[in-house]
Amino acid sequence: MKDWKMKTLVPALVVVLGFALMIAQIRAESEPGAIPLSLIVIGASWLFISRARKRRHRA
Questions:
Q1: Which pTM does this prediction carry?
Q2: Distance of CA 43 to the CA centre of its chain
Q3: What distance in Å separates the CA atoms of residue 41 and residue 37, rounded to the nearest whole number?
Q4: Mean pLDDT of 13-27
């Protein structure tokens, strides 16, 4: 049970970190950077894959 919580928590934290970095980047340079955008995409993909595997494992 804890394993699935960690596999959901870590990608969610990566997405939140990406959004925080994007906000800081936009405030500093008036444009989003590539690193925050990639963190958001990677974290969201990771979260989606983890949830799909959890559903498949449960079924």
A1: 0.81
A2: 2
A3: 6
A4: 95
